[in-house]
Specification:
The complex is a heterodimer of chains A (about 300) and B (about 350).
Chain A lengths: L1 H31 L6 H17 L4 H24 L7 H23 L23 H23 L1 H11 L1 H6 L4 H27 L7 H14 L4 H29 L9 H15 L14
Chain B lengths: L1 H4 L2 H8 L7 H20 L5 H27 L7 H18 L3 H23 L4 H19 L5 H4 L5 E2 L13 H25 L1 H11 L1 H6 L4 H27 L1 E2 L6 H14 L4 H29 L7 H15 L3 H14 L1
Antiparallel strand pairs in B: 1-2
Helix pairs in contact in B: 3-9, 4-9, 4-12, 4-13, 4-14, 5-6, 5-12, 6-12, 9-10, 9-12, 10-12, 13-14, 13-16, 14-15
Amino acid sequence: MEQFIQQVASGLANGAIYACVALALVMIFVATDHLNFAQGEMAMFSTYLTWQLIQWGLNFWVALAFSAGLSFLIGIIIERFILRPLHGAPVLSNVVVFIGLLAIFHSLAGAIWSHTIKAFPSPFPNVTFAGSGYIGPHQIGMIAVSLLLLFALFAFFRFTSLGLAMRAAAQNPASARLVGVRVDWMLALGWGLAAAIGAIAGAMVAPAVYLEPNMMASILLYGFAGALVGGIANPAGAVAGGFLVGVLENLVAYFGNMLEKATGLYVVGNGEKLMVALAIVIAILTLKPNGLFGRTIVKRV
Amino acid sequence: MATIDTTAPISAAVTAPKPALSNMAGLAIIVGLAALPVIGAQLGLLSNFTILQISLMVVYAIAVLGLNLLTGFNGQISLGHGAFFAVGAYCAAILIDRYNANYLLTLPVAAIVCFVIGYLFGLPALRLEGHYLALATFGLAIAVPQMLKYRHLEPLTNGVQGINLIKPDAPFGLPFSGDVWMYIIVVIVAIIMFWLARNLLDSRVGRAMRAIRDQPLAADTMGINTARTKAVTFGVSAIYVGIAGALHAIIFEFVSPDSFRFELSVAILVGAVVGGIASLPGALIGGIFVQVIEKYADALTKKLTNTMHLPIELEPWTIYGIALIALMYLMPNGIAGGLASLWRKVRH
């Protein structure tokens, strides 16, 4: 039982990471109707920026604030200069450009910072407390940060006029433009926000998985799974989905191990975690394409 | 769907034989061109290594053609075709290594296995469109190496170590080296596969495939069984990629889980896009591109870094990415599409 609680707790911690990535994905999807395959690599690149700033002697949070701001700018620049000319282009063109971006960010990070694995400091104090056997301080911090991020975003979209304008631009561009919303800039803003969220997610992930150019590949898949479980157009759902996927992934491996111990039959273990994510993605896409918390979108043909 | 729609005249130009050139004459020219490397090798002008490179180009061309059928002619985006390449390669490797099968026999087996898997994967994929299909196949591509390392498959796949093969020799004492002989086999298979693809696209099924791509609703109304056609296209596309994988395993003499990472799926997609997404000759250009990038991008980027005196050493993928994005703006129909439209401009 103790082990079970531990698995759930560390699943929640992993889930916090997936929730952050899922949140960034949903941001772009809501703002632009695209799934950004370069999201993970963008987050990885931002994490390297944070790492570099820390190496230059900045405090962790100051460095994170700087790199989040820088990522925000990079996100806006990408939208304005690379994706703008492709508005209305077929899906394939967009997917190819995303893959191109993925390749560029991945190789640039490797070229600038080399492919060797780097340790990344955790911003949270290493203290022991009741229950710290189940879950470490960094993991609790990670969960807190992702929840904080979610509430901040919720407040932004719900209570500010800019947030309202962004939602309007995404849901009904034509009408939004008529009432004076600069729809183009709203899209760019969505990209910027997503990139900044990615920077924060990366800085939270890196202490747990170490910093290297490949760190995001599998996390992105879990992020997608989380976003899909929650409903791809629903930020709160994405966060819930991220946590759910994190716990599910750990429990599947845990029960796999139990089964092997009990019967000697090996079915799943840690080596099959990515397959679990793939199975979740395919199952959700086929059985409940709108996610557990998403609304059905009716399309007029 | 601007990009895809504008390809219609190109694919028509490709599929309809030119009036002045009969089918037989066309075939003769292709066979003649394909025989050139063999002659070069027999005269000692081309090394076995060069022949192997050319064979790999043709192999990738078959794979790119497979993805072209699915993405270019049926409008389904796949980021996971490296998975079928891996299945084909492992089919061949396991049959040859464990069961001492003849290498030629592995091709139809790989084709059948890939068709079944592709068809089955195509069934849930039916409900997915555009980004979502890309996403599901993206997951497939990322999970492939883990699947191949699965413990229960280890007796067959040899786990992370992979399987070593030995290239077959030319039969009947023919005076060819192993590489030249395999080149001949690869080219014959490629010609057959391209010919089949052309005929398929010219047939009722091919027209149905394109109708689904352009107007799914209208296609449905006209009585096309959209679901079955899409799933079968997925399967057929997997056959092509699987056969390419099997040929790759035989001529490369090695398979391992980490040769089939996400990068491979990306390379096949990039080949299709660079060559020309709904074009048969484009597949050949794409195949050449994939192999050239894989082999020479390192040297190219090193040279570029040196000549431009860049502070950091660039990596091939940076160039890859930039080329990909630039191509989307300059030639959305790929090199074949760009050449075709250039040709039309020159003629008029």
